[in-house]
Design a protein that fits this description.
Elements lengths: L23 E2 L3 E3 L5 E2 L2 E2 L5 E3 L6 H4 L4
Antiparallel strand pairs: 1-5, 2-5, 3-4
Length: about 60
């Protein structure tokens, strides 16, 4: 059984545009964007992926 908590109490939410939209791909690392976040879950029916080098992987990666 899991406790239900507000996401902001257990995670740092960073908004903005760390990735240039023109460089998104349909293969690679899935990127969580605002349209993927819905009440209660992440929606993966519309995904964008990143294939480019990125020096801030630790800052923007989801962690368990």
């Amino acid at each position: 059984m899991y406790d239900i908590v507000k996401l902001k109490t257990i995670a740092f939410i960073s908004t903005g545009f760390p990735f240039k939209g023109a460089k998104y791909s349909n293969k690679g690392i899935r990127v969580v964007r605002g349209e993927n976040v819905t009440e209660g879950f992440l929606r993966w029916d519309s995904i964008k992926c990143w294939n480019e080098d990125f020096d801030q992987v630790d800052k923007y990666s989801l962690k368990e």
